[in-house]
């Protein structure tokens, strides 16, 4: 935000140390506690960058300035979460990206998905978003929830599958980076083609002997074995129903 020319007035966290750490980086006031008084902080936009389950709690526990524009950053929560708070204007400022401590991101390529209760609120969100990214979209709650589910498949589940693959390699004393060219080619191909249309592997070929051998090899990892079987069935079902087209 600061690099894009915005002034961060205050940073809030339940613990002072966490709030102060970030506030010091952006020359802002640090607020802390379970019942923050945001009414004492004058700002054009209040962003709730907290876990999804915490948004209703923070909304209820906080004191807000009348007419404040408050936006959560969740992909899963609807705009309706603000329905019980007529004194504020609700909005959504959802960055479609995964964030990890210590990893820098280039914001100009991050899709920012917006929604607001009124046109004035949306205009504020859009102005902030366009100062950060070249990809700004208006995404209503129902579509954003579907987008969030898709993102979990594309990001979180993919990372978990890579973790399983990494563990299997370690069990065979093979280097973790041996799969890197394969993973890159898979992602590149899926981005330039309909993914179902370029599916490869024993499941799409219905190579029963290989599938059985893999299943037996996973006997000591029953959860992974079940996952292998379910993904195999899903691939084959997609092929049968013509989802590749």
From TrEMBL:
Pfam families: DUF2520, Rossmann-like. Residues 3-83 form the Putative oxidoreductase/dehydrogenase Rossmann-like domain. Residues 110-234 form the DUF2520 domain. This is DUF2520 domain-containing protein.
């Amino acid at each position: 935000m600061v690099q894009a020319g915005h002034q961060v007035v205050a940073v809030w966290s339940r613990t002072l140390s966490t709030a102060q750490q970030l506030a010091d980086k952006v020359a802002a006031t640090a607020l802390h506690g379970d019942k923050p008084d945001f009414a004492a902080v004058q700002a054009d936009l209040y962003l709730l960058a907290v876990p999804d389950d915490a948004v209703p709690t923070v909304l209820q526990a906080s004191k807000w300035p009348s007419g404040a524009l408050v936006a959560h950053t969740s992909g899963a929560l609807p705009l309706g979460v603000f329905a019980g708070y007529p004194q504020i204007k609700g909005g959504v400022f959802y960055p479609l990206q995964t964030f990890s401590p210590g990893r820098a991101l280039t914001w100009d390529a991050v899709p920012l998905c917006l929604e607001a209760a009124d046109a004035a609120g949306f205009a504020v969100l859009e102005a902030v978003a366009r100062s950060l990214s070249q990809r700004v979209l208006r995404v209503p709650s129902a579509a954003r929830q579907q987008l969030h589910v898709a993102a979990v498949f594309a990001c979180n589940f993919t990372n978990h599958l890579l973790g399983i693959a990494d563990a299997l390699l370690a069990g065979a004393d093979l280097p973790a980076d041996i799969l890197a060219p394969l993973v890159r080619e898979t992602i590149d191909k899926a981005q330039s083609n309909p993914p179902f249309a370029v599916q490869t592997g024993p499941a799409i070929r219905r190579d029963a002997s290989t599938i059985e051998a893999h299943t037996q090899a996973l006997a000591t990892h029953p959860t992974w074995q079940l996952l292998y079987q379910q993904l195999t069935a899903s691939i084959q079902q997609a092929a049968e129903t013509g989802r590749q087209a």
